[in-house]
Design goal:
By secondary structure, this protein is an all-alpha fold. 48% of the residues lie in helices and 0% in strands. It is built from two helices and no strands. It has helices spanning 17-26, 28-43. The radius of gyration is 14 Å and the shape is extended.
């Protein structure tokens, strides 16, 4: 696996793991942009709050 590859779900407990694998690639750039922004904010000793729902 190269540094730019995303891991794939092995399935199991969670329903919809195929969809998660597909959308992970679709949102990769957006997620990386958020992580870069969050890292910059944390360097200024501010908090970053992430909330996930589904």
């Amino acid at each position: 696996m190269s540094r730019n590859d995303l891991p794939e779900s092995e399935g199991g407990f969670f329903f919809g793991h195929q969809w998660q694998d597909e959308t992970a690639q679709e949102y990769k750039e957006q997620d990386l942009k958020f992580c870069k922004w969050a890292a910059a904010v944390l360097e200024t000793r501010q908090q970053v709050v992430y909330s996930c729902w589904w």
